[in-house]
Design goal:
By secondary structure, the protein is an alpha+beta fold. Helix content is 29%, strand content 33%. It has a seven-stranded mixed beta sheet, with helices on both faces. The radius of gyration is 14 Å and the shape is globular.
Length: 145
């Protein structure tokens, strides 16, 4: 399945991503990407990268159609680690502890569990912190150079 990514209209993307990802706000360095299937005019998902520093960044994402989730994450992982994009060494993602579906998808693409943070989500839910290294991403995505 072929998907396209765009950074156009950051203000709207960041606004829409708040609802889609159930996040409470973005840091000043946040960069959002929309994703859509080549056959669709409407946005299928949004990914946000923020808190850049030390070769890592936080990653937040949401999709409107779960059937394309794996393709979407593969594209976002490429954006995170490819030298022509963010060229990161490590990607961090936080999930609500009861969001097993997203955690399973993250595991399938190479993310690893880092920790559980008690009451780490704005609504008081526990958070699961996961990470993906460049070397592990390369095994799943392929060449990132």
């Amino acid at each position: 399945m072929s998907v396209r990514f765009s950074r156009e209209n950051q203000k709207k993307l960041l606004h829409d991503a708040l609802e889609l990802t159930r996040s409470t706000g973005w840091k000043s360095d946040a960069v959002a990407f929309s994703v859509r299937r080549e056959t669709h005019a409407a946005v299928d998902g949004i990914g946000v990268f923020q808190s850049f520093g030390g070769g890592s960044a936080e990653f937040h994402f949401g999709v409107y159609d779960q059937r394309i989730l794996k393709s979407v994450i593969k594209g976002f992982v490429t954006v995170a680690f490819h030298p022509r994009f963010f060229n990161l060494e490590r990607l961090l993602a936080t999930f609500e502890a009861d969001n097993a579906a997203s955690q399973i998808v993250a595991l399938k693409v190479g993310f690893e569990f880092e920790s559980r943070v008690r009451a780490g989500i704005f609504n008081g839910s526990d958070a699961i912190l996961m990470s993906l290294s460049r070397s592990d991403a390369a095994k799943w995505v392929g060449c990132l150079s």
